[in-house]
């Protein structure tokens, strides 16, 4: 999806009207002041992404990342509106040479998600770029684009739910023509659009215009929302072998499963959008992730029709402005949950991680306050959730310079030790993992990232020299007798004008 333009409203770039975007949510935010418990594992798409999606398949700007198990040892991941070499960002859209595709797909067999998700292949056009799978007319007011919203495998056949977008409106609003299903019998290489579809109503309030799939037993539960980001969620069920047979669908009417589509009632109150649902064997619950207002939230239920729990904040827009589209990785297990999150700036997709306990409650959050430097532009003294630094230093606010979102921290000088730090509360005698993204000037030759006491004694650290692209650094440490540690990133600047930037810092209990 081009979520902020689409999701943010249609945009005209270089004379070409392109998709809007899913970002730019409307409706009340859920606990925007709450700390974001999740951590960034990896940037999956675009410039500086280890998968090099730009160089390999001309996926420079894209969003969403709907994932499902293909039943043959791989995860398929479908993206929304995708732009190539001419894309400059931030946000979706590009000029006439932007190589706009309404949807693309990649494949992965990587089971160790702790260090990211490796993409191994993509369905390609003859020139080698990732090809559009479900075509669209790309005519505003007719059919602007076709956006994947769900995927599932039944036997050797792959199914992908999508919405046909008629036009993008104001942020958080768009009109759909219908929701449809495409299928593939060659592991996602080629797709056929079936005749199975849910036409939108003239009022634009059909409850299944954006769908999500969750399997339990031999049934597929089809969760749906209206077009836009301001309606409730409903649910239907269908035997997995009859996914294309609309007569086999049964809709939850508040008491029972009804044959009549018009009987469907809300199971989660508005606003709900960009649903991802899966049954989690660890907590023995359905997990439902959605954009609600300006945040991504999680609800849980023992049955697909509910009752659903109160929302828990997964990722706050205060830390990741312009976030949307939280989609579960199907191989999450033992309470360790991985999902794809999009950001309008820089209009790319990130792999995120969180943990839940056996009751489905989010646990073991990131202990760093303001981890992405988005909540405040001012530098403090390093206590009370603030960051401190040695001059010349501060918060960069130029979107092009950040790893995620709009901000990152920096230090820069030509002599002496320059660093940025924060005091973090920890439990004594506990193992922790510190992560963060760092990059430096080319002449950097003595950089350090780690944890130390408040008196400055190093507990554990990583040493680095020149880091060109954003690079993830990981430091494991034991807290010993400490109840507070200082996490820091710094560089000796005795070899000329040297700078360091840091973003998305996390401390998680091991």
From TrEMBL:
Boundaries of every DUF4185 domain copy: 49-353
Coiled-coil regions listed: none
Signal peptide annotation: 1-31
Transmembrane segments: none
UniProt keyword Methyltransferase, yes or no: no
Keywords for the protein's UniProt record, in alphabetical order: Signal
Top-level taxon: Bacteria
Pfam families the UniProt entry points to: DUF4185 (PF13810)
Protein known as: DUF4185 domain-containing protein
């Amino acid at each position: 999806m081009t979520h902020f333009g689409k999701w943010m409203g249609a945009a005209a770039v270089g004379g070409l009207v392109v998709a809007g975007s899913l970002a730019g949510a409307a409706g009340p935010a859920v606990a925007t002041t709450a700390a974001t418990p999740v951590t960034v594992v990896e940037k999956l798409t675009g410039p500086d992404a280890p998968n090099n999606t730009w160089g390999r398949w001309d996926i420079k700007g894209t969003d969403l990342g709907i994932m499902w198990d293909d039943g043959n040892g791989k995860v398929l991941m479908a993206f929304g509106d995708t732009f190539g070499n001419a894309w400059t960002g931030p946000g979706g859209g590009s000029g006439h040479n932007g190589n706009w595709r309404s949807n693309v797909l990649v494949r992965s067999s990587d089971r160790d998600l702790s260090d990211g998700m490796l993409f191994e292949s993509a369905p390609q056009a003859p020139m080698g770029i990732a090809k559009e799978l479900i075509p669209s007319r790309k005519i505003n007011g007719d059919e602007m684009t076709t956006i994947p919203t769900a995927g599932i495998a039944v036997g050797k056949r792959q199914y992908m739910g999508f919405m046909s977008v008629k036009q993008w409106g104001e942020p958080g609003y768009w009109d759909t023509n219908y929701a449809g299903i495409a299928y593939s019998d060659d592991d996602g290489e080629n797709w056929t659009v079936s005749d199975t579809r849910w036409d939108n109503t003239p009022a634009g309030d059909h409850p299944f215009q954006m769908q999500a799939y969750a399997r339990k037993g031999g049934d597929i539960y089809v969760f749906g929302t209206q077009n836009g980001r301001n309606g409730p969620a409903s649910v239907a069920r269908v035997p997995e072998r009859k996914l294309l047979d609309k007569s086999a669908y049964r809709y939850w009417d508040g008491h029972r499963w009804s044959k009549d589509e018009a009987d469907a009632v809300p199971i989660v109150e508005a606003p709900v959008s960009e649903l991802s649902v899966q049954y989690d064997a660890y907590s023995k619950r359905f997990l439902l992730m959605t954009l609600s207002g300006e945040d991504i939230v999680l609800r849980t239920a023992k049955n697909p029709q509910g009752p659903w729990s109160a929302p828990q904040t997964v990722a706050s827009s205060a830390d990741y402005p312009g976030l949307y589209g939280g989609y579960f990785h199907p191989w999450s297990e033992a309470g360790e949950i991985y999902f794809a999150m999009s950001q309008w700036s820089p209009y790319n997709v990130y792999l995120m991680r969180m943990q839940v306990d056996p009751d489905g409650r989010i646990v073991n959050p990131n202990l760093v306050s303001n981890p992405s430097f988005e909540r405040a532009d001012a530098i403090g003294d390093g206590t009370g959730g603030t960051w401190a630094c040695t001059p010349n230093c501060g918060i960069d606010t130029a979107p092009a310079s950040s790893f995620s979102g709009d901000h990152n921290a920096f230090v820069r000088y030509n002599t002496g030790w320059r660093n940025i730090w924060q005091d973090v509360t920890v439990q004594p005698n506990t193992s922790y993992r510190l992560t963060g993204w760092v990059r430096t000037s080319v002449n950097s030759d003595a950089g350090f990232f780690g944890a130390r006491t408040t008196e400055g004694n190093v507990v554990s650290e990583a040493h680095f020299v020149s880091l060109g692209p954003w690079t993830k650094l990981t430091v494991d440490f034991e807290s010993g007798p400490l109840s507070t540690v200082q996490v820091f990133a710094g560089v000796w600047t005795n070899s000329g004008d040297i700078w360091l930037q840091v973003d998305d810092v996390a401390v998680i209990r091991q």
